[in-house]
Amino acid sequence: MGGKKMHTEIIAVGTEILLGQIVNTNAAFIARRLAGMGIDVYHQTVVGDNQQRLTEVIEIAAKRNDLVILMGGLGSTPDDLTKQTVARFLGKNLVEDAAAMKKIINYYAASEKEMTANNRLQAQYIEGSTPLKNETGFAVGEYYQNENGCDFLLLPGPPSELQPMFTNFAQPLLHKQYNHENLLFSRVLRFFGIGESLLVTKISDLIDEQSNPTLAPYAKTSEVTLRLTASAVNEQTAKELLDKMEKKVCSRVGEYMYGYGDDNTLVATVVAKLMQENLSITAAESLTAGAFQAALGNVPGVSHIFPGGFVTYANNAKSSLLDIPADLIQRNGVVSETTAKWMAQKAKEKMKTDIGISFTGVAGPEALEGNEAGTVWIGLAFKEQPVQAELYHFARQRSLVRERSVLTGLDWIRRELLK
After folding, report:
1. Does 156 sit behind a cis peptide bond, omega within 30 degrees of 0 on the bond before it?
2. pLDDT of residue 2
3. For the ranges 103-117, 149-163, 382-396, which has the lowest average pLDDT?
4. Secondary structure of 184-249 in the HEC alphabet?
5. What residues contact 38, with CB distance under 8 A and at least 6 apart?
6. Are strands 257-260 and 183-192 parallel, antiparallel or unpaired?
7. 238 and 303 co-located in one domain
8. Total number of domains in the chain
9. What is the dihedral of CA 392, 396, 400, 401, to 10 degrees?
10. Which of 1, 36, 79, 401 lies deepest, with the highest CB count within 10 Å?
11. What is the pLDDT of residues 312-347, one digit of tens each?
């Protein structure tokens, strides 16, 4: 099938996925890897641990695809029925992989546990398949090349087993079998401070005229990502295409772009920049109740630039911990520019850091001091600059007001670092 336009379907097997007890992260992992190989995924299906329904799904998938990838159901329990069902569909028997069986026997011998007969199922694969080694578990995977129809790839369900099996064994095999002239390469741009509708409006002509690379915007909580995908014969050519398109995008909305990648975050970007410039930071939080500092704490190595901070939810805590005069708060209000500035500056002074940031406002649902829910003041004492404060209005529920406040504070710091 070399060079042929592939139709592929991913089938996740597991009642726990249908019930929402676990998230189907495997499908996203496999789809991204296949896209990078130029293999198109046309359908994704989830089916429970039921042989009749699984058979129906396999029959449908086999008719409309060149390759069907099944994930899960390769274990030793009664509801692990994937390989048995596919074997029955193909009219094949199950055979035992000697190396996999030896690994299982050795495990039970070493752990002094009784090995039951059903454990042998994990070492079995469909007759005529290529078995795929499981380096982190016991259930063997397999690839079945069907000369008269659809091919099948069977992978274990646990991500800790599926990902290394796919990367080390299945992906090289698929690349050899279905190699294409052109491969797909993607780049994800991440934006904060601009909504999806406005971002799309500003680059509407690029989207309307897209061919190669293509552009796909995705709205996430409080931010937007834009995936650029180029088709090219090699990575260097794709990079040139992606660089050119990124330059066009950034000429319109570059001020809102903070980083790259599916898994990058605004806090990780800011912390990395602070560490690079060796700038320390602290915070005084009222509205956000420590959420900003918790976000910092999730980034490994942040202790190099974050010595600690303050959570001053009540007014007396602002006075006792930050030495803010009580009459100042009474005159100006806790939700005010003055209070936000004092909080940021006093936190910076007390912790002897380069940067101090503060959050005070109304998370809701009720108003405070005549301010509606979503009213937020953020203060920033940045290095040797005069302390500043900005007023924001976030029209969302309580938890999202806090989340948006934290991200807005991080983005303000990011912008100051770029000056």
Report:
1. no
2. 42
3. 103-117
4. EEEEEEEEECCCHHHHHHHCHHHHHCCCCCEEEEEEECCEEEEEEEEEECCHHHHHHHHHHHHHHH
5. 6, 178, 180, 182, 183, 184, 231
6. antiparallel
7. no
8. 3
9. 30
10. 401
11. 999 999 999 999 999 999 999 999 999 999 999 999
Angle between helices 398-418 and 266-277 (to 10 degrees): 30
Distance in angstroms between the alpha carbons of the first and the last residue of the chain? 53
What's the CA gap between 358 and 391, in Å, rounded? 12
Q: Which residue has the tokens 């903070």?
A: 258
Same domain, 223 and 273: no
Question: At 263, is the pLDDT very low, low, confident or very high (cuts 50, 70, 90)?
Answer: confident
Q: How far apart are CA 388 and CA 357, in angstroms?
A: 10
Distance CA 350, CA 381 (A): 12
| CATH code, domain with 368 | 3.90.950.20
Whether 3 is covered by a domain: the verdict is: no
DSSP 169: I
User: pTM for this structure?
Assistant: 0.70
Determine contact, residues 76/121, Cβ cutoff 8 Å: yes
Q: Is 183 helix (H, G, I), strand (E, B) or coil?
A: strand
pLDDT tens-digit map of 289-305: 999 999 999 999 999 99
What range defines the domain where residue 348 resides?
A: 266-418
Placement of tokens 């002509």 in the chain? 205
Residue 392 and residue 279 share a domain: yes
Claim to verify: residue 31 and residue 160 sit in the same structural domain = yes
User: Of 140, 45, 50, which Cα lies nearest the Cα of 95?
Assistant: 140
Tell how far CA 32 is from the center of its chain.
12
Q: Is there a single domain that holds both residue 204 and residue 301?
A: no
Rounded Cα distance, 281 and 348, in Å: 8
Among 177, 204, 223, where does a domain finish? 177
Residue 189 pairs in a beta bridge with 226, 260
CATH number for the domain spanning 127: value is: 3.40.980.10
- Final residue before a domain boundary, out of 230, 260, 290: 260
One-letter amino acid of 62: A
Residue whose entry in the numeric block shows the structure tokens 């009664």: 78
Give mean pLDDT, residues 167-182: 81
| Mean pLDDT of the chain, nearest integer | 92
